């Protein structure tokens, strides 16, 4: 007769998150038991929800070719600009010229004492509905794509700088003896031209055919020279500014995208301000 002890049976494994549930399935990453409610199918085996959550938290956020975070949903910046222009146009119809439009329109003689006009002039339009409708339609064509590609902050900077760049060229090319100096400029055309210029560069950066964009830009630039009441200076200034800013955003080195975008935006802004200050100093 032998004397010994009989081992007790091992307790069945239980889910790490639900200790009242027996589970013989283990996470492929951490090895802990997990009940059916706490497992997620993986390429090989299953993983517990805690490991999946941790992997998602530590994984790099997906980004576009230009470094912008991939976002679903609506293009908020584009829609906001369209909404502001639409509300502004309605106010133009309701209020007197002196009450609304004249306070926001870009007017060269007042640009040095009321510099906000370089920006607000892009949010008012002529009384003709086709003006605001065409500009907003053009914005809707390229705006959502550029906003998704560059990100909201860079897209907004591109739009606003293109608007300012358009009015800057108006000041640079106008003289006190010309009617251009005493003519108010309104419309988002300069900003839209800047977007088209940047869109062309983005398409080229991706290796896609951008001939259609060139045709659209060419036709509209010609119309600016031959059609009455169109500021070709504003169109050209917005286009040039958009091309410069678009080049910075589209071709920045991958490891220095943020630095190039911030520094480039500051430099372009400073350059536009410097040109305007120097021009007004000559009058």
Automatic annotation (TrEMBL):
Pfam families: Rhomboid. Keywords: Hydrolase, Membrane, Protease, Transmembrane, Transmembrane helix. One of its GO terms (cellular component) is membrane. Gene3D superfamilies: Rhomboid-like. InterPro entries: Peptidase_S54_rhomboid_dom (IPR022764), Rhomboid-like_sf (IPR035952), Rhomboid_protease_S54 (IPR050925). Residues 114-250 form the Peptidase S54 rhomboid domain. The chain crosses the membrane at residues 76-95, 155-175, 181-203, 210-228, 234-252, 259-282. One of its GO terms (biological process) is proteolysis. Its main location: membrane. The keyword Transmembrane helix applies. It is found in: Membrane. One of its GO terms (molecular function) is serine-type endopeptidase activity. It is a multi-pass membrane protein. It comes from the Bacteria. Belongs to the peptidase S54 family. This is Rhomboid family intramembrane serine protease. It comes from Sanguibacter suaedae.
């Amino acid at each position: 007769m032998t004397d010994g002890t009989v081992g007790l049976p091992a307790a069945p494994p239980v889910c790490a998150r639900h200790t009242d549930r027996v589970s013989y399935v283990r996470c492929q990453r951490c090895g802990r038991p997990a009940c059916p409610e706490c497992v997620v199918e993986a390429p090989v085996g299953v993983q517990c929800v805690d490991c999946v959550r941790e992997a998602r938290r530590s994984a790099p956020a997906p980004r576009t070719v230009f470094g912008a975070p991939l976002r679903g949903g609506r293009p908020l910046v584009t829609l906001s600009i369209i909404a502001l222009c639409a509300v502004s146009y309605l106010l133009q119809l309701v209020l007197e010229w002196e009450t609304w439009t004249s306070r926001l329109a870009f007017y060269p003689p007042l640009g040095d004492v009321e510099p906000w006009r370089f920006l607000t002039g892009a949010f008012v339009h002529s009384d003709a509905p086709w003006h605001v409708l065409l500009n907003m339609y053009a914005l809707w064509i390229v705006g959502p794509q550029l906003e998704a590609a560059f990100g909201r902050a860079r897209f907004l900077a591109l739009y606003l700088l293109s608007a300012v760049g358009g009015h800057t060229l108006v000041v640079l090319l106008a003289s006190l003896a010309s009617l251009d100096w005493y003519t108010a400029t309104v419309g988002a055309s300069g900003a839209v031209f800047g977007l088209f210029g940047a869109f062309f560069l983005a398409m080229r950066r991706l290796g896609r055919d951008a001939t259609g964009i060139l045709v659209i830009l060419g036709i509209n630039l010609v119309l600016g020279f031959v059609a009455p009441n169109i500021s070709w200076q504003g169109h050209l200034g917005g286009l040039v500014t958009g091309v410069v800013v678009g080049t910075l955003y589209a071709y920045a080195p991958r490891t220095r995208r943020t630095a190039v975008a911030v520094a480039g935006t500051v430099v372009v802004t400073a350059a536009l301000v410097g040109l305007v200050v120097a021009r007004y100093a000559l009058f």
